[in-house]
From TrEMBL, chain A:
<keyword id="KW-0456">Lyase</keyword>
<feature type="domain" description="Fe-S hydro-lyase tartrate dehydratase beta-type catalytic">
    <location>
        <begin position="4"/>
        <end position="176"/>
    </location>
</feature>
<comment type="similarity">
    <text>Belongs to the class-I fumarase family.</text>
</comment>
<dbReference type="InterPro" id="IPR036660">
    <property type="entry name" value="Fe-S_hydroAse_TtdB_cat_sf"/>
</dbReference>
<dbReference type="InterPro" id="IPR004647">
    <property type="entry name" value="Fe-S_hydro-lyase_TtdB-typ_cat"/>
</dbReference>
<protein>
    <submittedName>
        <fullName>Fumarate hydratase class I, aerobic</fullName>
        <ecNumber>4.2.1.2</ecNumber>
    </submittedName>
</protein>
<dbReference type="GO" id="GO:0004333">
    <property type="term" value="F:fumarate hydratase activity"/>
</dbReference>
<dbReference type="Pfam" id="PF05683">
    <property type="entry name" value="Fumerase_C"/>
</dbReference>
Automatic annotation (TrEMBL), chain B:
<keyword id="KW-0408">Iron</keyword>
<protein>
    <submittedName>
        <fullName>L(+)-tartrate dehydratase subunit alpha</fullName>
        <ecNumber>4.2.1.32</ecNumber>
    </submittedName>
</protein>
<dbReference type="GO" id="GO:0051539">
    <property type="term" value="F:4 iron, 4 sulfur cluster binding"/>
</dbReference>
<keyword id="KW-0479">Metal-binding</keyword>
<dbReference type="GO" id="GO:0046872">
    <property type="term" value="F:metal ion binding"/>
</dbReference>
<keyword id="KW-0456">Lyase</keyword>
<feature type="domain" description="Fe-S hydro-lyase tartrate dehydratase alpha-type catalytic">
    <location>
        <begin position="11"/>
        <end position="278"/>
    </location>
</feature>
<keyword id="KW-0411">Iron-sulfur</keyword>
<dbReference type="GO" id="GO:0008730">
    <property type="term" value="F:L(+)-tartrate dehydratase activity"/>
</dbReference>
Length: 185, 285
């Protein structure tokens, strides 16, 4: 395992450029949540010429729809959802300055192209790690689309949130590199 | 002849929805341990260690192991000498889901219609499969299924001339296409034969089998072993980060089919392979 890189948000282009595919990252600071329905609403809002519910410049979106918090919990279980369903929307947000996405699974060529062109990083969190990841979220607040329930946009504060750089700004992809290394068929 | 009240069914389903989401089965935990020993990739080992830690947190703190607490799949075997009183069985099963998802703080992930997509707010309706069997018992299995792995399933109407090799290649190709999306290490359910929906049903039902338990028929158990070996040579590894443990098990079920057909369905389960079962015995009539 590579050594751990500690990153504080906001994720400026300078910080993002330092990150390489395969880097093990502990992330701290403010990030935002959004998944299928929220992405659709955000991109539709932009098409109508409206503002986004938060300024995406130098920010990270975590693709997640948490479980309802139990009394006393900051947030319920909160692991990543599969990212390709956001592929249709991510390039628009990257073009507006989004520098990071946290999810799991493959991304389209269009997303990778946008990441390379505008400078963004795709991080993987471990899918199915919802109970553990929730403990690294120290604050959570719904800031937009509350009607979407688990899909509402939340502002999260995370502390030492464990993620991995899957695709860096140069387009190096851990899924391809890792698979090639262990493939014997 | 025995009789059972729907309230007993509702309570049992409520409890199973919660426990399935909080308590990962021992069979899966043991397979994580085995994978940890055999995994050659350092990132793969780290993923497995974290999954074991996550399952322990969920169990001890009584929280869902994964935020996708799924659509609720229920398999029911109804003994034909059992009478159900107090309401409809289907309503009782759905009421159990409704209560379990609320009480257990589970995520409500069901939308009312594939096009309108408005959340039903209580995770109903469940997907219910009935089977009628001899006897006077009610056997209920609750298996919450997340979308990340379900979305990676596939069906192919192979030609009989494609044979076993064609079937195996389709299974391996389906897993390869899925990559890291379905949260590997996965469990691969394979249904072969019957007709289109029968193959899909068998693939799903195959996922209920404990990890490490092969098909009782030796020829089919051998196919499971061969498929597992081929899949684990793909290199996808835990979470797709590269490694030698892409799948924990391949479970195959077959059924008679038509002279002109060879349907194959692949249903993938993430590592959070959740299922709880109960046998309700009812009381003397």
């Amino acid at each position: 395992m590579t050594e751990v890189v500690r990153i504080e948000t906001p994720l400026t282009h300078e910080k993002a450029a330092q990150l390489k595919s395969g880097d093990n990252v502990l992330l701290s600071g403010v990030i935002y949540t959004g998944r299928d329905a929220a992405h659709k609403k955000m991109v539709e809002a932009l098409a109508r010429g409206e503002e986004l519910p938060f300024n995406v410049k130098d920010q990270i979106i975590f693709f997640v729809g948490p479980t309802p918090p139990k009394p006393g919990q900051v947030i319920g279980s909160a692991g990543p959802t599969t990212s390709y369903r956001m592929d249709a929307y991510s390039p628009t947000l990257i073009e507006r300055g989004l520098t990071g996405m946290i999810g799991k699974g493959l991304r389209s060529a269009e997303v990778v192209d946008a990441m390379k062109r505008y400078g963004a990083v795709y991080f993987g969190a471990i899918g199915g790690l919802g109970a553990l990841l929730a403990k690294r979220i120290v604050a959570a607040e719904v800031i937009a689309y509350p009607e979407l329930g688990p899909e509402a946009v939340r502002r999260l504060e995370v502390k030492d949130f464990p993620i991995m750089v899957i695709i860096d700004q140069e387009g190096n992809n851990l899924y391809e590199i890792g698979k090639a290394k262990y493939r014997t068929i | 002849m025995k009789i059972i009240n729907v309230n007993e069914i509702i309570e049992a389903v409520e409890k199973m929805c919660i426990e399935a989401n909080y308590d990962l089965g021992n069979d899966v935990m043991l397979s994580f341990q085995r994978a940890l020993k055999s995994e050659t990739s350092p990132s793969g080992r780290e993923v497995l260690e974290r999954l074991i830690e996550n399952a322990s947190i969920a169990h001890e703190e009584r929280v869902p192991m994964c935020q996708d607490t799924g659509m609720t799949i229920i398999f029911v075997e109804v003994g034909q000498d059992l009478h159900i009183e107090g309401g409809m069985l289907t309503d009782a099963l759905n009421e159990g889901v409704r209560r379990g998802y609320k009480k257990g703080y589970l995520r409500k992930s069901v939308v009312n219609d594939p096009f309108e997509r408005v959340n039903t707010e209580d995770n109903t309706p469940a997907i219910i499969h009935y089977d009628f069997v001899s006897g006077d018992e009610l056997h209920i299995t609750v298996a919450p299924k997340g979308a990340g792995s379900e979305n990676m399933g596939a069906l192919k109407m192979c030609k009989p001339s494609d044979g076993l090799e064609g079937v195996m290649q389709f299974v391996v190709d389906t897993v390869e296409r899925a990559g890291g999306n379905p949260c590997p290490p996965i469990i691969v359910g394979v249904g072969v034969g019957g007709i289109m929906e029968k193959a899909s049903y068998l693939a799903k039902k195959a996922l209920l089998r404990e990890v490490g338990v092969h098909n009782k028929e030796e020829r089919l158990a051998k196919i499971e072993e061969k498929l597992l070996e081929r899949i684990n040579k793909l290199g996808i590894g835990p979470q797709g980060y590269g490694g030698t443990n892409t799948a924990l098990a391949v479970n195959l079920e077959v059924y008679p089919t038509h002279i002109a057909m060879l349907p194959v369905a692949v249903n993938i389960n993430c590592h959070a392979a959740r299922h709880k079962e109960i046998i309700l015995k009812g009381r003397e009539y």
